[in-house]
C-alpha cells in the first residue's frame, strides 16, 4: 500500500502546483490529500508541506481546527468567480451554468467554514 500512497501524494502535489498557477483549480485541497498520503508513505515529505511558509499554515489550520482563513476564502471565491466569468466569456451558454453551480456550491461551503 505504501507505494500507492506515495504515488497518490506525488499526484496530489502535482495537481496542487497546477492549482497554484490556475485561478479555476484549488491548491490546498490537493495538498491536504498529499499530506494524508505522505503521512502513510513518506513522513519527511509530509513535514515539508506542513513546514512550507505559504501552504503549511493553511493545511495546519484545516487539520487542527477545520478552519479556512478569511483571506483564503476571499481568494478562493474570487478565483471561482473569475473562472465563471471566463467560462461565460469564452464558452457561453450552457457551459457557464456549470461554473456558476460550482461557485454556488463550493463557494457557499467555503464561506460557511470557520475562520
Describe this structure in words.
The structure is a single chain. This protein is mostly helical. It has 6 helices and no strands. It has 2 domains: 1-56; 68-115. The longest helix is centred in the last third of the chain and has 21 residues, at 70-90. The radius of gyration is 16 Å and the shape is globular. The mean pLDDT is 91.
Question: Quick gist of this model?
Answer:
The chain is mainly α. It contains six helices and no strands. The longest helix has 21 residues.
The ordered H/E elements are: HHHHHH
Helix content: over 70%
Low-confidence stretches: none
Largest sheet: none
Question: Structural class of the helices, strands and pairings?
Answer: mainly alpha
Radius of gyration: 16 Å
Strand composition percent: under 5%
Q: Treating each run of at least 4 consecutive H or I residues as one helix, how many helices?
A: 6
What is the general shape? Answer: globular
Question: What is the tally of beta strands?
Answer: 0
Mean pLDDT: 91
Number of domains: 2
Distance between the termini: 35 Å
Main attributes of the structure:
115 residues; mainly alpha; 2 domains; 6 helices; globular
Amino acid at each position: 500500500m505504501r507505494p500507492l500512497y506515495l504515488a497518490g501524494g506525488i499526484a496530489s502535489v502535482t495537481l496542487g502546483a497546477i492549482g497554484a498557477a490556475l485561478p479555476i483549480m484549488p491548491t490546498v485541497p490537493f495538498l491536504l490529500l498529499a499530506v494524508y498520503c505522505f503521512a502513510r508513505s513518506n513522513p519527511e515529505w509530509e513535514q515539508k508541506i506542513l513546514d512550507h511558509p505559504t501552504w503549511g499554515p493553511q493545511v495546519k489550520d484545516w487539520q487542527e481546527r477545520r478552519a479556512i482563513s478569511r483571506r483564503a476564502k476571499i481568494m478562493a471565491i474570487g478565483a471561482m468567480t473569475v473562472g465563471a466569468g471566463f467560462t461565460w466569456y469564452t464558452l457561453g451558454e450552457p457551459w457557464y451554468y456549470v461554473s456558476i453551480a460550482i461557485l454556488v456550491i463550493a463557494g457557499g461551503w467555503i464561506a460557511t467554514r470557520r475562520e
